[in-house]
Amino acid sequence: MLAGLCLALAAVVSAGPLQDEVKARRARVLDRLGPDALAIFWSAAPRVFSTDVNYAYRQESNLLYLTGIDQEDTILVLIPGSEGKEYLFVREADPRREHWNGHSLTPSEASSQSGVATVMTANQFEPFIAAIFSRRSGSATAEFAPFIKALAESRAKLAVLSDVQGDLSGPPGRGAEFAGRLRQHFFGFSVVDAGPVLAELRQIKTPYEQDVLRKSVTISNEAHRAGMRAAAPGKFEYEVKAEIEAVYLRRGAMSWGYPSIVGSGPNATVLHYEKSLRRMEAGDLLLVDAAANYQGLTGDITRTYPVGGTYSREQRDIYDVVFAAQQAGEKAAKAGAELREIQKACDEVLRAGLLRLGLVTDPSGTQFKTWATHGVSHWIGMDVHDVSIPRPLGPGMAFTIEPGIYIRDAALDDLPKTPANLAFIEKVRPMVERYKNIGVRIEDSYLLNESGIERLSAGVPRTIDEIEQFLKGRGDKP
């Protein structure tokens, strides 16, 4: 049976930059899994939006990373052994489904796109795995001899992806459930998490990935400038959002990398505000956090600018502190440093600045976190909050620096009413009244290379003078 399955397709794979890249990624994964492992990666399941309508399909990031295939019902199997083996399974042809939903990749097309030479249909997946785990002898399984030997000696490993709690993930019938069913019928193997191997590799961007990320952020830069041109008193937040996301489509991005945040006035103090329904007014600040997903890679950019074109004195005060914090974070972002050092550098400036403005009273503690409520850095890549393992910064790593200050009355109301907090509230209340509803976040995407950090999002105005000058004529109108 196994011999017949493996004859399903051994196509001549066409060359190309993406195919070469994903083949190299798989080779690195095979090398790190070790000779006693067999790894299985499933595509994401479709997600229901309502009744018979699904959300737009988003491939599971690791499978996309390893194959470049953005199609559901896809499975990748990697078997290191003495010579790394790779097998791809795609769904069977179905004319009725394709009439409704469009063309599905044939095995030959999937092979050409992914660079995997042996591609079979999904209904052959479970018999293929069963033939290996049952340790059937003969020439049909000779190429899997190292793994079969490991099974016989009870040291084989089945590698699948698990979530942060260690529970095997995946839709029903995949991940944990599939491993559980194998355990009911076969023995000689343990189940391990393939996540750390993928995280280690994804954290270092190859030259190919660096070029794609630059292109992705360039599209996002253009989108932000389009949003800045669209913002004006009397317009709605969703009009700005529409201009931003139109650029993604026009420039060939797959989609947004995350839901766009377009919040004006008090909405700028809501970290993940997504409604985009408010009518903007003169005197408002508009906070825009948005980026495109281009060829599977996503940056992350936030700008905060005055709808009317000019910052007020109070808005400038807050903006100056946030910008100084980001500059301090940039200085700390160098090879050998850790993200916590970027956080510490930003925190020192935020704490001192808020103290100077009378919004905190403690020069050394965490009181400033009342207004500076989130971390200032995260990795970017296949996901906007990309895979993370504890390690120092090094060439090829991509990340953000995004300090923010958000002045909300509710932040004081939520504090436990201890004597210390009551004294703090009484002391800062006048300044909170002065600065209330001002939310400022400045976020850029960076790539660390041999010469230092590269600010990929430099194409979006960032300083107060740059932004006001851009808005004066609503920028570089096409």
The percent of residues in helical segments reads 25-40%
* Alpha-beta classification: alpha+beta
Mean pLDDT: 92
Tertiary shape: elongated
Radius of gyration over alpha carbons?
A: 26 Å
Described by strand count, sense and barrel closure, the largest sheet is: 6 strands, mixed
Question: How are the SSEs ordered, and which strands pair?
Answer:
Elements: H1 2-6, H2 17-33, E1 37-42, E2 48-50, E3 53-54, H3 61-67, E4 75-79, E5 85-90, H4 95-101, H5 107-114, E6 118-121, H6 125-133, H7 145-152, E7 156-160, H8 176-185, E8 189-193, H9 195-203, H10 207-230, H11 237-250, E9 255-256, E10 261-264, E11 285-289, E12 292-294, E13 297-298, E14 302-306, H12 313-332, H13 339-356, E15 398-401, E16 404-406, H14 409-413, H15 419-435, E17 439-441, E18 444-449, E19 452-455, H16 464-472
Parallel strand pairs: 1-7, 5-6, 7-8
Antiparallel strand pairs: 1-4, 2-3, 4-5, 9-12, 10-11, 11-14, 12-13, 15-18, 16-17, 18-19
